[in-house]
Write a structure and sequence with these properties.
By secondary structure, the protein is mostly beta strands. The chain folds into two domains: 85 residues, RimM (Elongation Factor Tu (Ef-tu), domain 3); 72 residues, SH3 type barrels, CATH 2.30.30. Helix content is 8%, strand content 51%. It has three helices and twelve strands; from the N terminus they run ββαβββαβαββββββ. It has a six-stranded antiparallel β-barrel. The chain has a six-stranded mixed sheet with strand order 10-9-8-7-12-11, with no helix packed on it. It is elongated and about 65 Å long. InterPro entries: PRC_barrel-like_sf, PRC_RimM, RimM, RimM_N, RimM_N_sf, Transl_B-barrel_sf.
């Protein structure tokens, strides 16, 4: 499992003092209030910041970082992802998973002769009605699987394995 996770991104500047409007990937905001430091990432560039304050709640969550003191400085950070250590991220509830933990998992289904390997998850895409698991198929090509109970069975993050209930969806 990865040690660091993306927990949100900078949507825009807010006001004139360098405050940042933040989108929380989990839809929660309480874990932001406990942050003392964070990393911003954008196109391979990383910057470390000290957190001065967190205000509001999702969807209007505001973040103030030390050294970002003007609207212009805040605007330059628009689109940057917010990364923290795993223990600082929002905890997952039953049936929830971090996207970073799903990527790289192998996809199997149950066949008459045992488990059948279909491929590996290479990306997780947020769609309007469900997350989609993009699978690089073992025979070549790619397929999208809606991450819903109807299609996906057991998810075992420790074994890096996901069971597919309906293998026909890969066709």
């Amino acid at each position: 499992m990865k040690d660091r996770l993306a927990i949100g991104y900078i949507r825009s500047a807010h006001g004139t003092n360098g405050a940042l409007r933040v989108h929380s990937f989990s839809g929660e905001s309480e874990h932001f209030r406990k942050l003392e430091r964070l990393t911003l990432r954008y196109r391979g560039i990383e910057r470390e910041y000290e957190v001065e304050g967190v205000f509001g709640t999702h969807p209007t969550l505001l973040l103030k970082l030390k050294g970002v003191d003007t609207r212009e400085a805040a605007q330059r950070l628009q689109g940057w992802e917010i990364w923290v250590s795993r223990e600082k991220a929002a905890p997952c509830r039953e049936g929830e998973y971090y996207i970073a933990d799903l990527e790289g998992c192998e996809v199997y289904s149950r066949g008459e002769a045992g488990s059948v390997f279909h491929g590996t998850i290479v990306a997780v895409i947020e769609a309007p009605h469900a997350f989609l698991l993009e699978v690089a198929l073992s025979g070549g090509g790619r397929a999208m699987i809606p991450f819903q109970d109807h299609f996906v069975g057991e998810v075992d993050i420790l074994r890096r394995r996901i069971e597919l209930k309906t293998p026909w969806i890969l066709e």
